[in-house]
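Slides due. Your pick:
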Amino acid sequence: MNPSIARRGLLKGVVGAAVLGFDPLRRSWISVAEAGQGHGRPQPLPRLDGRLTTDPATLAECADDFGHIVSRAPRAVLQPGSIQDIVEMVRYVRRAGLKIAMRGQGHQTDGQAQVDDGVVIDSRALNRIEAVGAGGVWVEAGTTWRALTDKTIAAGFTPPAMTNYLDLSVGGTLSAAGVSGASHRNGAQIDNVLELEVVTGRGELQRCSPSRNGGLFQAVLGGLGQFGLIVRAKLKLERAPALVRLYTLDYDTTDPFFADMKRVALDRRFHHVEAQLVPQTDGSWKPSVMAVAYFDPGSPPNDARLLAGLAHTAAAQMDLPYQAFLARLDPITELQKQLGVWGFPHPWFDVFLPAWATPTYVEDVLSTLTVADTGNGPVLLYPLRRSTHRHPFFRIPRSDEVFYLFDILRTTAPDPAAVQAQVAANRALYEQAKDMDGSRYCIGTIPFTQRDWKEHYGPTWLLFVAAKLAYDPQNVLTPGQGIFSY
């Protein structure tokens, strides 16, 4: 059976309140059950291969996200049976004066993919992966990186930059950027996209690439859903290694740690590098680096060459299959789900810092940070290189070639006062970072005003506004980011 037909049949069988259309006078949706009962005359929906639903459970799911902090209830959820459904629904909400956003796996932390009173597109049904080869792979936006790598690795290929957590959607990470431990070599995930299909805020399905419709291509990747909804992407692939050697390098002090991080970012001796700041019983934090070299059976890495010149005080190593390395967080996330903390609030803090400022900034933060402040969530640091990033709306520090992503991945008790205290702490930490030429990685929870957004985009702000006017002039797309109020 054609998978598209099977998918459409599944969606049409979903139990829930099917929608006939939107009543512009009452500003409400009219369901099949309400038709003819004095609820007004709806503006009829276009023909859909999937369905629009007002089922309460579906609305509640799309009013929440992994952050569990912000809740904005949509009026309806589109479960698309085709890309054309998304085109039709964007056109429909423009006429009805509504707003719309795409939601993948719901892993945002601050309501970024939520829409108050509008429409959320649940992209999970758009999960087709086309033929894998050396020239890349076309994949629909709702596909998870886990499903994608299962297929690409079986064919001998892998995306050059991967997320640590595999159960994120391709469309979601490409809208944010997708930074990983391989980004010092290969850039973010947005830097490894060959071509896109995008539904703009005008309701136009457009194909774009660096050489075709390049303005839209540059704007959408890392554009936070403001200019178009990514529906398909052609991703670059490289040969997948069979094995990885994972080195764990421990440091007693931060000076040699930061010197080594900068060194390995510039010389690219490792395929993947990330660091964790590990809490100690005396309240201090010690740095530990995970450095990874890819290899195939019979051709192991040269340990002496890879570790030469580094100033770690202890080292350990292990070999494991590449696919197991990609899935290394699975036991941790499964335990969090079993313990129930996966459903706790997650006011994550994520900023980019230039190399010159990072040691001072991180040491200052760690001097007062406690395990209670993180909820036992990890504190991470990724060394990155400015020259590997090419998209104008992915804002990174301007003053150094080497910069860092600094993450405090907080888990907080489900208590409103505790959550707000952590959110306020995030804002204070952001102000410190901004004073050091730092910038926000827009996946976390930091309160932002429109003035903040203007400062965030800095010299590209006018380009950002021009792109919004060109591709989404009625401002119907992705209001949860809070960038535009009109």
